[in-house]
Amino acid sequence: MGNWINIHTHRPGKGINILDSCLGETLPCREGKIFHSAGIHPCFIDARSRERLEELEQAAAVGKIVALGEAGLDRNAPASLPVQQALFEAQLQMACRYDLPLVIHVVRAVPELVASCKKCPSFGKGIIHGFNNRREILYDLLRHGFYVSVGAKVLDARSHASVLLPEIPAERLFLETDNAAIPIEEIYQAAALRKQVAVSELQCLIEANFRKLFTRCG
């Protein structure tokens, strides 16, 4: 049996957890191992966001974080899209400089996301978190080199995430719990069923992706 790898969570549990503290979580983790990510979420942009970039740079430079994000673009967020793009691109450039994965939140802004990422063509560690979108969006993201992370929506057999999971290449797939109060094991079990593979095989496939991208996790 391999590791339970949860690449984006606010509720750490078993296995290896990438804890995003953007919601101010201080939850202990008695069952697994925690690594940290940090970023400027497009929905939480405020007057301190530029200052926050400097804090992120310091955290990345000294190895306090193993990934950046979540960061991204969201048309439903209060901040204007140009403001979001400027901050996202700053974090993208930072991810390039430090060779860190970038956990990406995107809502109704995939073309703009792709345009921003083309400004750093050498970067290949973008992970679309919480994917639950249409088939054409999935293939657009895959065509542009993104990894795709699926969360609790895989438990809903009618969701895009569940229906399209078999079409996500194993070498581009991650799993996560985000803020759901659901054990990562349940998400792996549902995903393995949709992929028609054993849970242990899915664990090995995702761990290979994890070792490739999250190089600071040893």
Automatic annotation (TrEMBL):
A divalent metal cation 1 binds at E70, D178. A divalent metal cation 2 binds at H105, H129. One of its GO terms (molecular function) is hydrolase activity, acting on ester bonds. GO terms for cellular component: cytosol. Keywords: Hydrolase, Metal-binding. InterPro entries: Metal_Hydrolase, TatD-like. It comes from the Bacteria. This is TatD family hydrolase. Pfam families: TatD_DNase.
